[in-house]
Recover the amino acids of this structure.
């Protein structure tokens, strides 16, 4: 019996496990109810009294050796599995699951790029605006019904602080701080208290444009926007202007582009008219120049404003504006390969 136990001790000492399963088998072999050690304790009963002390000590030594072995090996296996995780396989192909630009960012960047090619800088303003920059300086008189044109999210009343309802407020900030020549576009987020639907949202994005210098005319406005439309929608794009009204421009117009889906023949996107409206524009009202302390006898200017969602919908034939805000990867992944 002594020999047998000593051999077990040797076996245990030289044992090593490659994985947790092997270690578990080892534990079962020695320590489980039907394992070697309980069996030895069983045999112990038949040991003559004079050998009992020695045998008892040996069996205990075996048991402790087995237990220590298990603890040691378990630690080692854990540590090595941790190390494995830190090993990098540099031969693996590069992960192509990187994010892509949001469609609104793609279109915003494209608009910025087109205007920067003809000398427009980019300017930004705050999303929380005071009444002066959002309305008053833009020639919305106090109590004028034009202020109702936009449902506003007010943050404070008297003095009025609100989420800006349009990026036209950035025009005011630029003109307050710079003398002409001014040629700038202002992309940004705007807010209106509207019910959310496929065609409207309470948060959306606009790009405002402003050009103020000596002798700027409506012809400059038309040519600039014609160039923009062709760059954005394609060489064959035509434009037309319809008279409109905005408090901050005089005269004012809305610009349509020939429908890029049907080429002007008529389809459900353009409601069979061949034209789609993409922006509002006009000559900066002299009152706006005055409010910003720019001499309206010396300078004239044009301004325009467009919705990025609307343009993105036309360009990519998206028929529900809410898709831009839901972050559904099935929608967003369709834009992954687009240039930005
Ligand atoms: N601010 C207008 C809006 O939110 C858009 C606009 C129209 C901007 C005409 C302009 C402009 O600069 O000249 O509906």
């Amino acid at each position: 019996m002594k020999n047998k136990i000593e051999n077990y001790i040797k076996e245990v000492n030289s044992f090593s496990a490659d994985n947790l399963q092997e270690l578990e088998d080892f534990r079962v072999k020695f320590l489980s109810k039907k394992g070697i050690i309980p069996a030895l304790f069983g045999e112990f009963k038949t040991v003559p009294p004079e050998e009992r002390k020695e045998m008892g000590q040996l069996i205990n030594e075996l048991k402790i050796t087995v237990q220590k072995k298990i603890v040691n090996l378990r630690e080692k296996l854990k540590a090595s599995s941790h190390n494995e995780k830190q090993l990098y396989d540099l031969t693996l192909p590069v992960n192509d699951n990187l994010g892509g630009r949001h469609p609104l960012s793609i279109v915003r960047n494209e608009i910025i790029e087109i205007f920067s090619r003809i000398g427009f800088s980019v300017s930004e303003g705050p999303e929380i605006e005071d009444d002066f920059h959002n309305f008053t300086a833009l020639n919305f008189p106090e109590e004028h019904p034009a202020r109702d044109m936009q449902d506003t999210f007010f943050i404070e009343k008297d003095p009025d602080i609100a989420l800006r309802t349009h990026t036209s407020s950035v025009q005011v900030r630029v003109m307050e701080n710079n003398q002409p020549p001014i040629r700038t576009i202002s992309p940004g987020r705007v807010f209106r208290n509207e019910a959310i639907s496929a065609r409207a949202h309470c948060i959306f994005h606009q790009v405002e444009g402003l050009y103020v210098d000596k002798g700027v005319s409506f012809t400059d406005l038309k040519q600039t926007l014609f160039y923009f439309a062709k760059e954005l929608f394609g060489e064959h794009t035509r434009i037309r202007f319809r008279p409109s009204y905005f408090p901050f421009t005089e005269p004012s117009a809305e610009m349509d582009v020939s429908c890029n889906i049907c080429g002007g023949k008529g389809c459900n996107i353009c409601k069979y008219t061949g034209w789609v409206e993409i922006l509002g524009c006009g000559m900066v009202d002299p009152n706006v120049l005055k409010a910003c302390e720019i001499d309206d006898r010396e300078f004239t200017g044009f301004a325009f404003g467009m919705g990025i969602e609307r343009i993105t919908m036309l360009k990519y034939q998206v028929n529900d504006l809410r898709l831009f805000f839901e972050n559904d990867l099935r929608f967003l992944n369709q834009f992954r390969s687009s240039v930005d």
User: Anything to note?
Assistant: The chain is about 40% helix and 20% strand.
